[in-house]
Structure formats: C-alpha cells, structure tokens
Amino acid sequence: MVHEQEESSPVYAIVRAGGRQEKVSVDDVLNIDRVSDEAGSTVTWEPLLVVDDGKVISEATELNGYQVTAEVIGEAKGPKIDMLKYKNKTGYKKRLGHRQKYTRVRVTGIAAK
Fold this sequence. Notes:
Layout: E1 12-17, E2 20-25, E3 29-33, E4 42-45, E5 47-52, E6 55-57, H1 60-63, E7 66-87, E8 92-112
Antiparallel strand pairs: 1-2, 1-5, 3-8, 4-7, 5-6, 7-8
C-alpha cells in the first residue's frame, strides 16, 4: 500500500512593486522598477492579497499583519527598444533607443508581523 503525501498549497502574495502588481512566493527572483537600494539590502512590501494554505486574505485589517520581504540581488537591464521617426519627402529621419534599468530581487519571506 503506497501512501502519497499531500502537498501543502504554496503561500503567495500579490504586492505592488514599482508601479505594477506582482505575484510573489518565497525564493522567487523578479525584476522590479529600479530602487536605490544596494545589493544585499532588504526591501519590504505591504501585500494587497495573501493566499495561505488555500485561505485567501484580502481584507485590509487582516493584511496589516502580513509583510513581504525581499533581498536586493543587483541591477539588470531590459531588452533594447529601437525607435525610428520618419517623415516622408522631407528628409527627416531620427533614430532613438532605450533600455530600461531594473532591480533584481529575491523574495525571502511572506509572514505575519
């Protein structure tokens, strides 16, 4: 007779990081809009929603007890975006480029304060 272990549902949270909402769980590595913290420092977020063992927590009074912490790994760059402005019959041509800078973070914990 083989007994299967039940997998516990992963704990994850929705946080607002850098103007966007991100779904994070422990040990996730993600790129967020640049923050001025150095590599090795800690960033904390207030979650907008927490799912803990299948229980969804979205009320503001209950969320005040939760905190998401992440460690800054370093900087990263996004893909190069090339832009070209052109107007017909006038000889106007302009090339532009942009490469967004991000901060890489690793989520270290989702816990009650």
